[in-house]
Amino acid sequence: MKARRDVYQAIADPTRRAIISMIANQPQNVNAIAENFDISRQAISLQLKILTDCGLVKMKQRGRDRVCEAQLDKLSEVSVWVDQYRQHWERKLDAMETYIEKLKKERDGK
Predict the structure, then answer these.
(1) CA-to-CA distance for 18 and 65, rounded, in angstroms?
(2) Which CATH architecture has domain 7-73?
(3) Considering Cα of 71, then 76, then 77, then 78, what sign does the dihedral take?
(4) Per-residue DSSP letters for 84-99?
(5) Domain ranges in the chain?
(6) In the chain, at which residue ranges do the beta strands (DSSP E only) sit?
């Protein structure tokens, strides 16, 4: 049984992130994507397979071309996860700012 890939695996690799960025606004064929990298066409195909398995890319056949289209809905899962930690650190930084202001007032005798 093959392990199911998830969106976190997809974005862990800089090449895959670059591919997502390339096709986020406009679908592109596999050859056009491969031309932008200094790795083999086979390596790009593997990266695209991982992105497809994760649900971030959809492949469509258009004539002789395979066109890659971004499916960015899954990235909302990552956004929610990251947002939890952003809120945590914002609370910590707000508390530190309050503490620093308190120390300044004590130092200045106010």
Answers:
(1) 21
(2) Orthogonal Bundle (1.10)
(3) positive
(4) HHHHHHHHHHHHHHHH
(5) 7-73, 75-108
(6) 28-29, 57-62, 65-70
Residue 108 identity (one-letter amino acid) = D
> Token pair for residue 3?
């392990």
Count of C-beta atoms within a 10 Å radius of residue 4: 9
For residue 82, what are its two tokens? 């990251």
Amino acid identity at 103: L
Q: What is the pTM of this model?
A: 0.72
pLDDT of residue 4: 63
Identify the helix (H) or strand (E) that includes residue 21.
helix 14-23
Q: Whole-number mean pLDDT of the chain?
A: 90
Is 69:57 a contact under the CB 8 Å cutoff?
yes
Length of the chain counted residue by residue: 110
Contact 32, 66 (CB under 8 A): no
Residue type, 30: V
